[in-house]
Write the structure tokens for this entry.
Amino acid sequence: MTKDKKLYKFLLIEDNPGDLIIIEGFLREEIEFPLIVTAFNYKQAAEILSIERGFSALLMDLSLPDKEGQALVTSILAITPISCPVIILTGFANVEFSIKSITQGILDYLIKNNLTAAALYKSIIYAIERTKNIADIKASEKRYSDLFNLSPQPMWVFEPATFQFMHVNKAAIDLYGYTEKEFLSMGLWVIFNESDWVEIKNTIKSQQPATGLIKGLYINNTKSKALVEVEIYSNSITINDKDMISVIAIDVTEKNRFDQQVVKAIIKTQEDERYEIGGELHDNVSQILAMSQLSLGMLKDFVAQPGLTKYAQCREYILLAIEEIRNLSHRLAPAFLEYSTLEEAFGTLLHAFNMGRSYKVALHFDNAFATAGIPEDLQLNLYRILQEQLKNILKYSNAGLVEVDVIIYNNKLKMRIADNGIGFNVNAVKGGIGMANMKRRTELFLGKFNTDSAPGKGCAIVVDIPLTGMALSSK
């Protein structure tokens, strides 16, 4: 490997000796003769910057003994020459903080755990080049414009009154495939699916003036009709005295595909274990009990009259145990994918849940479900979500009514599970493992999981899964 033989001078602000050694090693791995000046806290860094000049770049940990976070960023930018790019090296991934830091003047935000020598070198070179390009920018609007266009993340600006694109950067053009001219001739409705577009439009129109608080995971359409998953963050800006909304769209398609593969592997392991236990209960334990019942029946003629009552009770208990094991094995290993429909499996599950007739239960399945071609893995996960929420209702709700609705609309599958129980404050109560599992199962299919509850108002969980994005998450 050929090393960069140019002369570079770095100010490295890091209080962790181990990280200091690693970062210095990364620099020497890519650069022949790096001159590295180190500071272990903000005070030392300020003293060095007051007497030394000519740094190629400043590499800074985000947490120092005497200053950290936003205060550190603000202070460092105030004393660092504009010709010296500042790059944050941190162990904490905070997208919103990184975006805010970059808009303030930080050139890059790198996570230590993901750092390599090549990635650090590439970031430094890009930062130096970007710094050279913006060194003479004085006006804040021009500075923002250049940072906007040089951003490696897709960014665009739109007018909230018309939702028309006003500015796009090169990264957005590369991601979506439209030319700048094409972008400026169309609006947000082109890249968003219909339901998301309606949601965004209503959100913006309800804000007076528009605050631009669009945030979340969306599936966008490219010019080639490919689907990309993006995390959207936005903010209000003013350009030429006009209110605009600036958006950064972080492409997380590959990251989410990897995460989904991991989650699928975990869920598959869980399902395999459940099916194995369910099979053992059904084929082994139930058979042992059946044989015990048969053997007990053969002893009836040898039981004296006073013991017949106990004898009958024993046979009844064995029958009850066989029935309970049968129900448990069916819940662990639902057979609806082979022998019945999901609607029938839901009905069986609700019947088992309401064995004591303590609840009024209502189940509604959209007729369109039968012909929608819903993948088996999605059906199984819907079953598990219902199973989990019924456990929550049984344990916490003190409800008398349970409603389950499954409908299909606008190329979306929506499942709603509601009860009229005691409810809870969604913002005050931390979700447990069960709630996290339901959310994870929903997001596995690019869906959205929402909880609507309040004290005394019951609880409703809503699962919204886009069927148009099914190709991204199908088996």
